[in-house]
Design goal:
292 residues; six-stranded mixed sheet; elongated
């Protein structure tokens, strides 16, 4: 039985994100994500100006009148949402935890997919594959994705992006638009990301909390690493320590962005203290310019 407060949260996300998709992202999703090409639709009688290469000679021979083949864009896509549910994502210092923000992002992307008659699927991972929801269409299916993203209780604690990418390639036969929603506190996945990006259109949504960049002066703190369960002490009153903390954090983010650029993987920088809709709009506009 899902708690009442979770049901209210699911309903709230459904209302806000579906409205956002209708009001803000209408048309942008479709313009930047293309189908697999052209597929046959029907034949019709030849009209002056039609390309003679499109003539269907079999139908023309049977009817005694010239007919041409009509093609339409094969629009249907499969969108995979690859959601990091590791313990490092269960952190937030502003309005919400990174995991809650990730669930909202899943909702926006899933609603965008079904609005364009595309399929949406979900892979939840930690240091193991936690949950797989096969791609389907429809509102009920999207509500299931939101429920799983919000309510699923993972067994693992760590982060294994390599494992998630390998699993994606095993469970999908055709090209997908795959969004990896994670804080990317992981190593050893670069080669596997490059392999997956050759088969799929991979987009990284990197979620960062401001406390992961700036450490305030809070005196001596005893902290616990949620993934390794190790405890340690920090003297945050030390200005040199706080500067080093910021420098190391920014270096990690810069190296991650450089890695994505080297593999032509689009990266959307999401902050828990900023409006993610603006970053998604910026991403859509960038893709539109690139395709123009």
């Amino acid at each position: 039985m899902i708690p009442r407060e979770v049901l209210r949260k699911i309903r709230h996300i459904q209302i806000t994100t579906s409205r956002m998709v209708s009001d803000v992202f209408a048309g942008q999703y479709q313009s930047v994500f293309r189908g697999r090409g052209m597929e046959f639709d029907e034949v019709r009688e030849y009209q002056p100006g039609d390309d003679i290469k499109a003539i269907d000679w079999n139908v023309t021979a049977r009817t005694g009148h010239p007919y041409v083949k009509k093609f339409v864009e094969e629009r249907e896509l499969t969108v995979m949402l690859i959601l990091d549910a590791s313990m490092s994502c269960r952190f937030g210092s502003v309005k919400q935890m990174k995991s809650q923000l990730a669930a909202e992002l899943c909702s926006v992307l899933a609603f965008s997919a079904i609005r364009n008659n595309d399929k949406a699927g979900l892979i939840i991972f930690t240091d193991k594959i936690e949950k797989f929801v096969p791609p389907r269409k429809g509102l009920r299916h999207v509500l299931r994705i939101i429920r799983e993203a919000l309510y699923y209780h993972p067994q693992g604690k760590g982060t294994d992006i390599r494992l998630a990418l390998e699993y994606l390639n095993r469970v999908t036969r055709r090209k997908t638009i795959s969004f990896i929603i994670s804080d990317f506190f992981a190593e050893g996945f670069k080669k596997f990301l490059a392999i997956a990006n050759k088969r799929h259109d991979i987009v990284a949504l990197s979620i960062t909390d401001p406390r992961e960049i700036e450490m305030p002066n809070l005196g001596i703190l005893r902290l616990n690493d949620s993934e390794s369960n190790e405890s340690f002490m920090l003297d945050t009153s030390d200005g040199g320590f706080r500067r080093k903390y910021r420098e190391d954090s920014l270096q990690r983010i810069n190296e991650r962005e450089k890695m994505f650029r080297s593999m032509n993987v689009d990266n959307i920088d999401i902050r828990t203290n900023a409006d993610y809709a603006k970053e998604l709009i910026k991403f859509f506009k960038m893709r539109e310019r690139r395709l123009a």
